[in-house]
Amino acid sequence: MYNGKFVTSVIxxxxxxxxxxxxxxxxxxxxxxxxxxxxxxxxLAFERDEVTDEIVVVCPDTMTEEFSSLLDAxxxxxxxxxAKGGAERQISVKNGVDAADKRAxxxxxxxxARPFITPKLIADAAADGDRYGCSTLAVPVKDTIKRVKDxxxxxxxxxxxxxxxxxxxxxxxxxxxxxxxxxERSGNIxxxxxxxxxxxxxxxxxxxGDYRNIKITTPDDIAIAEIFAR
Length: 230
Prior knowledge:
- With 230 residues, the chain is α/β, with parallel strands linked by helices.
- The chain has one domain (6-229): Alpha-Beta Complex (Spore Coat Polysaccharide Biosynthesis Protein SpsA, Chain A).
- The protein is 33% helix and 25% strand.
- The protein contains 7 helices and 11 strands.
- The protein has helices at residues 38-48, 64-72, 89-98, 119-132, 173-186, 193-200, 219-229; strands at residues 6-12, 32-33, 36-37, 54-59, 80-84, 104-111, 134-140, 147-149, 152-155, 163-172, 205-208.
- The chain has a 7-stranded mixed beta sheet with strand order 5-4-1-6-10-7-11, with helices on both faces.
- Helix 2 links the parallel strand 4 and strand 5 (80-84).
- Helix 5 packs across helix 6 (193-200).
- The longest helix is centred in the middle third of the chain and has 14 residues, at 119-132.
- The model has no long low-confidence stretch (mean pLDDT 95).
């Protein structure tokens, strides 16, 4: 519960792991680091934070039983629900939101493949989501970024204006639903949930993230995750 709002944390673990090129087997959520799977590490962070009231894990139908068995062994004290993954992330997250307790007033959306999220960062995201309506963890980019077209640089955006977005992203539920419905009507498919709020005309607040809050996406990320896990 945060500021009187029931908080549902939706963990999206429905991705195909296609960029792993087979390195993760059938799912990167089941990779082991220091004796624990990615999905277990991720869920435990939300079990231990002080704001989440319930956890919804969104995953493929074919993996619900396996995920459930793994997470049951953790003896969670918070309610755990499962929702079916969709063809697009936007649909998967909406399925998770639809599965939430009807009391939910604040929604946190997190990538299941970010196992190094901390309870403090979760609480920070929730606080800003409640205050501003929509927030996302993010960190300043370290490299100079070039905009490129047909192999030629067209622009160099000022680095101080660029941030790498992380999760969780936090939404007042009513704003999330309005932004989702607007995106549906317009035919917009967003890989970033905050993008729906932007397109809806809302503002997205930046909450300071952490460079260790990586998303395990490619085989190179596995080596980094192993170091963090140790």
